[in-house]
Amino acid sequence: MKRRAPAPAPPPASPAPAAPALAAPTRILLTLAAGVIVLVGLFLARDVLGPLLLGAVIAIICHPVRHPLERRGWPSWAATSAVIAVAYLVLAALAAMLAFAAIQFTRLVVDFAPELRAAADGIMTWLRDVGFERQAADAVASVLDPGSLASLAASTGNAVLSVLMAFFFVLAYVIFMAADGARYARAEARFGSSITGTMQRFRAFNRGVRTYYVVNATFGAIVAIIDGLALWALQVPAPIVWAILAFVTNFIPNIGFVLGLVPPAVLALVVGGWPLMLAVVAIYCVVNVTLQVMIQPKFVSDAVDITLTLSFFSVVFWTLVVGPLGAILAIPLTLLTRALLLEPYPDRRWLRWLSGEDDAAPGAPPARTAGPVSSGRSAGRSATRRS
């Protein structure tokens, strides 16, 4: 029989044409649009997001309590209970201080209302005498107006009430996060080296947050004690209130010093005139500049590699997005954003360097890298220390 010739093989299928890449301006616009949508969502959810972030920070700070207890043989549930107890003590202390300061500040405004009015009238007259327009003089003098200060006190009281209302949500968040902390610690053992780089970045972030707040709390307490004793020696009313204010505002980068200085300086002007106010300003400047500008940055440099411009912008930005808690959580939120958006990508090292992370520059020591990507000044040490 005559064999049939094999059928010719079909021609190879031509590859499908690749989708045209988006132009760089289009990609930038899409990225910005997505960022705006995310930020709007965060803004709308700020009443829930603020307590959630505060609970996360408290859980991160208190999480190391677990390690020595587990090494001593404590069961996981007991170690978790200890973490929750420590977190509750921290939150209770903060809430008590804020409530006490708000109540005392309101009483001060009521008690010194005549003196505040007299001081406002005196400043208004002096500004007019030196040539200022009436509108400017009224605007400056309104700072000392008892009605304005009463409104400030009321808004402060409302803010404290909101914090206390959110306090109950934070309590629940802390329980959940403290319980899940033990689970996250076992992730690398379960999934192996494939997630080592990611876990090291988050350990570095957690360690940076803890170092930042512990150092700020330590220096804030020192500043508060010195400022409170100085105000007590100068016989400025309610020195304990201003000491608490100095402690709390120490957690706000850059502008916290000014926020903590203005109220006691204004009260010193009312009760003692310009000499007492200048004395208060001088003491605050010496104490805060010496401790917060010259000494404190040396202790937090390993935890927060952020430029001064970025830290100031972070306070403004996160306050607008999250609310008042954003001022206190600004640095951790900025560190988290950098860890998520910049650190996993080697081609964005230059952005990390611009943000203040010196170890992201070319030629950085290889010992400071976490996996394939550097994770900052502290990340190189995360391979040998637990979070």
Structure commentary:
The chain has 387 residues and is mainly α. The chain contains 15 helices and two strands. The chain has a two-stranded antiparallel ribbon. β1 (369-370) and β2 form a beta hairpin. α2 packs across α4, α5 packs antiparallel against α6 (134-141) and α9 (196-233) packs antiparallel against α14. The longest helix is centred in the C-terminal third of the chain and has 45 residues, at 256-300. It is globular, with a radius of gyration of 28 Å. Residues 366-387 have low confidence and may be disordered.
Q: What proportion strand?
A: under 5%
Count of alpha and pi helical runs: 15
Query: Mean pLDDT, rounded to whole units?
Result: 75
Number of strands: 2
Q: Between the first and last Cα atoms, what is the distance in angstroms? A: 81 Å
Q: Sheet with the most strands? A: 2 strands, antiparallel
Give the spatial strand order of the biggest sheet: 1-2
Query: What class do helices, strands and sheet pairing give?
Result: mainly alpha
- C-alpha Rg, in Å? 28 Å
What is the string of SSEs from the N terminus onward? HHHHHHHHHHHHHHHEE
Which stretches are low in confidence, meaning pLDDT under 50 for 5 or more residues running?
Answer: 366-387
Helix coverage percent: over 70%
**Can you tell me the overall shape?**
globular
